[in-house]
Amino acid sequence: MKIDKQLPVVTAIDPQGHSRAEGHRALAGESQSKLPGATEQSARYREGGKHSGYNLQLNRQLTAMQSADSYLADVAARLDQVKLALSRQLATPTADAQPALREAIAVLESMLAERSKRSAGSLDANLRLSLNEPARTRFRLPGLDSLERLQAVQETLIIKAGRRQSEPGVVVLERGVHPEQILRRFNEALAPAGVRTELDSDGKVVFSSRETDWLRLQNGIAVQGQGELFEPDRYSLVSPQQESFLTLGEDLKLETSQQQRSMLDTVVKALDRIALLRDQLNQRKQEIREFLSRQSGQNDQQWAADYVQSVFGLMQKATSNYAAVTQTVVAQANLNRFAVVSLLS
Question: Which keywords does the record carry (predicted)?
Fold first, then answer.
């Protein structure tokens, strides 16, 4: 069970940027003596809007990570219950302990099924954190997961992947082609279906789609080839194999002690992975809180009020000063969504 140690995070914050408070002080001083230049004032406002954008994005990430951490804590608690039930069953094997074990597994399975809702969409099926885009489902397609095999054939594939495709995608495979070209051709062919192609850490070809699209893709993807990988005269239905954190189901066998020990090992590994993920989350949350704490000393509302007052001051002189009108237009043109949302929040 592989652990993704790199959590997606927001772009690094520019430590050289001016704060809003500095922009406010400079603007207030200029307003008492002379009107600031359009370039200077626009740059000052962009710096303020830049920090507003960072704060808003970081707050969103912090909220998403809190939801993810809360969900992981609940999953860990359920895994502990399954671990306890398995340990008791192995210590004193009795038929009476089986119902309790099955019930604990059923509760865990139900919680895993509610992952997207309870984690606010911040965790995918393999418990990878997704902060900057909706969580995606990663899956393999048997026959298309070996990069070496794809590089060794000369074949044109026709792929039908869900209803979003207006027409089938076409992928031309050539012997010895570079891996990046193979990925690019798959991505171009499957982009209309919302499917992305990449290599995993083991060099295997994996596909991914948004979870809403996965509901349409999991029933199968049809592929037609030229006889090397797939049949030339008909479409072959390929069943996607989803990557998931923990696979449970009604066919789970726990009758023998060997099966129970295997399940116990799986549970212990799952708990270790959740502990590592939560450590990563807590470290990142602490970094965000420290940054937001440093920014909290700046009075955004006062900064915004002074800026608006300076704009109105320019407008009052607009009847006799064309330069003032120009400065006003430039200042208003640099308004952005992040600044408006931050001001109204």
Answer: Coiled coil
Contact 277, 73 (CB under 8 A): no
Q: How many CA atoms lie within 13 A of 93 on its CB side?
A: 9
Residues 6 or more apart whose CB falls under 8 angstroms from that of 212 comprise 134
Q: How far apart are CA 155 and CA 75, in angstroms?
A: 45
User: If you compute the radius of gyration of the chain from its CA atoms, what whole number of angstroms results?
Assistant: 28
Residue 179 tokens read as 């891996």
Task: Say if CB 38 and CB 327 are below 8 A apart.
Answer: yes
Q: Which residues contact 342 (CB under 8 A, 6 or more apart)?
A: 52, 53, 55, 56, 300
Cα distances (angstroms) measured from residue 340 to each of 112, 311, 327 = 38, 15, 20
Contact present, 230 and 159 (Cβ < 8 Å): no
In degrees and rounded to multiples of 5, residue 207 shows phi and psi of: -120, 155
Helix 300-316 / helix 38-91 crossing angle, nearest 10 deg: 160
Q: How far apart are CA 271 and CA 264, in angstroms?
A: 11
Within 13 Å and on the Cβ side, how many CA atoms surround 13? 21
Helix, strand, or coil here: 167? coil
pLDDT (0 to 100) of residue 11: 36
Return d(Cα 137, Cα 116) in angstroms, integer: 11
List, for residues 178-191, the tens digit of each pLDDT value: 999 999 999 999 99
* 3-class secondary structure, 11: coil
Helix (H) or strand (E) holding 341: helix 337-344
pTM metric for this prediction: 0.64
Helices 300-316, 337-344: axis angle to 10 degrees equals 120
* pLDDT digits 0-9 by tens, 153-165: 999 999 999 777 7
Q: Could you tell me the end-to-end alpha-carbon distance of the chain, in angstroms, rounded to an integer? A: 43
Do 38 and 331 form a contact (C-beta atoms < 8 A)? Answer: yes
Kindly state the DSSP code that residue 201 receives in the 8-state scheme: T
Instruction: For residue 284, give Cα distances in angstroms to 7, 14, 51.
Output: 9, 17, 19
